[in-house]
Amino acid sequence: MKILTKGTYYGAMHAEQQMNGVLFSEYDYLTDKTDWHFHENPYFMYLLQGNLYDVNKRCKTTCPSGSFLLHNWQEPHFNSKASTQARGFHIEFEKSWFEKNNIDIDLWEGSKLIKNPKSHHILAKIYAEFKYADVYSEISCELLVSELCENIEKEQIYLFEENPPWLTALIEIIHLHNEPFDLKSLSQQLGIHPGHLSRAIPKYFSTTLGDYIRQVKVKRAIDLMLYSTTSLSAISYECGFSDQSHFSRTFKRYMAMTPREFYKKCR
User: Under a CB-based contact definition with an 8 Å cutoff, are residues 2 and 36 in contact?
Assistant: First the structure.
């Protein structure tokens, strides 16, 4: 089976940057279906455009634009395109980086689709700095990568816990629908008492329900800004914000920049 060494991916490279044991790169994926392979190093893949299937020995994962995957170096897999064009951003780690930064590498086994919207926000900030590439981008990326890995590490621990069956259903409802939610309607859909739901949400999301929903809306807006030519006002409407001013305020709260500033950095 083919082993892809550091900085090697299927496709055509747009740009690449090395920073203290971490390699950043952006690729157009040109192959309709890759060979079975695995990678020398663990890496994140952020699908900026298009649709892919990621297939390993255990499962087949559908990856639309905006998907964020963790790939372990020990996981054989192949990819197939489900769209004419596909483009991705990679963050690849030398194994020594984990030890230097006190990250538990044992938690990074297998391949996983990361859905935590906070992790997506951090990843989008890293991509914006990668594209902007001024004299401050390197130190910004280093700090953001450490923050991202700490957040992923917490999520990996969370995945090993015994989760209630309604949690997956709740996450799917929030991620797939734009309409306003209230505690009563969610409780009815999930078949649990509103009081139990209100007490349980902070435990699993580490925040309030309203804050988590806003995080998801911002994540959805980021995805649209990166792969579409849709106007910001249309994105605001599509993501369920009351108006463009509400969109801009909420986006800046989580991303520390306005939607327009983010859009310009990524171009």
Answer: yes
**Cβ neighbours of residue 85 closer than 8 Å, sequence gap 6 or more:** 28, 49, 50
Sheet holding 87-93, edge to edge: 12-19, 22-28, 87-93, 43-49, 68-71, 111-113
Q: Are 89 and 130 in contact (CB under 8 A)?
A: yes
Dihedral of CA 239/240/243/249: which sign? negative
- pTM for the whole structure: 0.92
Q: Quote the tokens at residue 68.
A: 């964020």
| Structural contact between residues 80 and 32, judged by C-beta atoms closer than 8 angstroms | yes
In the structure encoding, which two tokens stand for residue 66, read together?
A: 């905006």
Of 253, 257, 259, the C-alpha closest to 236 is 259
Tokens of 43: 């890496």
Structure tokens at 127: 């991509």
Please state, in angstroms and rounded to a whole number, the distance separating the CA atoms of residues 207 and 137: 30
| Cα-based angle 89, 90, 94 (whole degrees, multiple of 5) | 165
Q: Domain 2-115 belongs to what topology?
A: Jelly Rolls (2.60.120)
What does the alpha-carbon distance between residue 105 and residue 266 come to, in Å, rounded to a whole number? Answer: 30
Six-digit token string for 95: 């194994």
pLDDT digits (tens, 9 = 90+) for 34-74: 999 999 999 999 999 999 999 998 889 999 999 999 988 87
Provide the pairing of β-strand 77-81 with 12-19.
Answer: unpaired
How far apart (Å, rounded) are the C-alpha atoms in residues 264 and 202?
35
Query: Is 52 strand, coil or helix?
Result: strand
What pLDDT digit, counting tens, does each position of 190-217 carry?
Answer: 999 999 998 888 888 888 888 999 999 9
